[in-house]
Design brief:
By secondary structure, the protein is an alpha/beta fold. The chain has 17 helices and seven strands. 54% of the residues lie in helices and 9% in strands. β5, α13 and β6 form a beta-alpha-beta unit. The two termini are 35 Å apart.
């Protein structure tokens, strides 16, 4: 059953001095923003039910999530900090004697509400600022960033060792649950550890990738992984013939099948690397986050990043109006149109100027902008420019918009440092979309409170 507000009064607020519950200027401004009932409408449209146990009130949940992203707290730490703070309890609409929701409850609610709810909340905030004439949306600056996945640096030998370890661990859980496996599975972890330690000693010598010891270690782990995958398939087939398996065994069997499948794909891509093929499409870089992609940006002295590319569009006063977690690593030239279309959902007739770096430059993009009402497009050309183009880019309005564009670099840095956009702690594309949406909504609330 959906609950919107916490309506229970407390006698403690009448006994204790009001200074105990005093909010900071920032939290007071955000509390006034979130008091608008329009922030509750998306929850009513999607999750309004009258049966079941009462949920955490939406007003409490929104304020808890803001504190979490604003101060980059984990769920358990968030619950402890709010429990110990009178002012944070007041901000979250909790009285002194009200119990806080469990950390696991907040995690489930975050996945339940999903990314679409966060996008609706952000749109509601933008409409509120637009109606108050705080932002007008006449200018838009666009750029891309990378939100890294929460994984270690992927190597062929490391991924093979991870796959062997996960299959062995899952088979061990099935054995402890009472399934008689017998000699269908052999534990090869001792060989894996010995090979990995020997490989670390070789790598300390800063040898090349085609060093004989590295090739031998890769071949050894590939052979062991093939045996482990074959044994895992046999166990999966054997358990499939058994009847009336408890739910826990069914979950473990399904999980074992997933680890066997992904480890088999890693073995195939390792064979291709041994054969000399370095460019493998849809290469797996993590067993836990299989949607993460290797992203190499066109900048000097930038290492390869593993995660998801994020498109960000920002208007005046530092408010982010559009964002998108894109698949793979498409060229920036293909992302300008989605950014402008996302902005024009709310600012259809007012967008007059667009600024971006040379990565978004193409003649097609500029023509498309002019045909859609954008009178000033400040996007420097790539490569050698003609005299006519140089004169065009030296105009005062073009340079002014380029100075405006540079501000989005600082905005992305702020999002990464203060709101957790640097690394997503949620897995997969869907988890990264939720993570990015929370960061954008918290940032926009924070920025709106500063403006107001």
């Amino acid at each position: 059953m959906l609950r919107l507000q916490n309506q229970q009064p407390s006698l403690w607020e009448a006994v204790l001095p009001p200074e105990v519950f005093c909010l900071s200027e920032e939290l007071a401004a955000i509390d006034r923003l979130l008091d608008d009932e329009r922030f509750l409408n998306p929850f009513l449209e999607r999750f309004n039910t009258r049966i079941g146990r009462p949920t955490v009130p939406v007003a409490i949940y929104l304020r808890l999530m803001y504190l979490k992203r604003r101060y980059q707290l984990g769920y358990e730490t968030l619950v402890k900090e709010v429990t110990d703070s009178f002012s944070w309890r007041r901000f979250c609409r909790l009285s002194i004697d009200d119990p806080l929701p469990e950390a696991t409850t907040l995690i489930k609610l975050t996945h339940k509400y999903g990314e679409a709810m966060l996008r609706d909340l952000n749109d509601t905030l933008l409409r509120k600022l637009k109606e108050g004439k705080v932002i007008r949306g006449r200018k838009l600056r666009v750029d891309t960033a990378v939100t890294e996945a929460n994984i270690h640096y992927p190597t062929d030998t490391g991924l093979l060792a991870d796959g062997i370890r996960l299959i062995t661990r899952t088979v061990g859980k099935i054995r402890k649950a009472g399934i008689e496996i017998g000699k269908r599975f052999v534990n090869h972890m001792r060989t894996v550890k010995k090979t990995s330690l020997g490989l670390m000693k070789v790598m300390k010598k800063r040898v090349r990738k085609d060093h004989p010891d590295m090739i031998a270690a890769r071949a050894t782990l590939s052979r062991v992984a093939e045996e482990v995958v074959a044994d895992g398939c046999k166990i999966n087939s054997y358990i499939g013939t058994l009847a009336d398996m408890p739910p826990r065994i069914q979950r473990l069997t399904k999980q074992l099948g997933e680890w066997v499948t992904v480890t088999g794909k890693i073995i195939e891509q390792t064979r291709k690397v041994i054969d000399g093929c370095r460019h493998i499409p849809r290469r797996i870089v993590s067993l836990f986050d299989r949607d993460a992609r290797p992203i190499r940006r066109g900048k000097l002295r930038v290492d390869t990043e593993f995660g998801h590319k994020v498109l960000i569009g920002e208007t005046d006063h530092g408010i982010i109006t559009t964002y998108k977690v894109v698949q793979e690593n498409p060229a920036d030239t293909t992302l300008l149109k989605p950014a402008v279309q996302g902005h024009k959902r709310l600012f259809r007739r007012t967008l007059k100027a667009v600024a971006a770096d040379r990565g978004f430059s193409s003649r097609e993009n500029e023509m498309w902008l002019h045909t859609h009402g954008v009178t000033k497009a400040s996007i420097p050309s790539r490569g050698k420019v003609t005299k006519e183009r140089r004169c065009y880019q030296h105009q005062a309005w073009f340079k002014r918009l380029q100075r405006f564009r540079a501000g989005i670099e600082a905005r992305i840095s702020l999002l990464q440092r203060k709101f957790g956009l640097k690394r997503s702690l949620m897995r997969g594309t869907q988890g990264t979309e939720i993570w990015v949406g929370q960061a954008i909504f918290a940032h926009n609330l924070w920025q709106a409170a500063r403006i107001l």
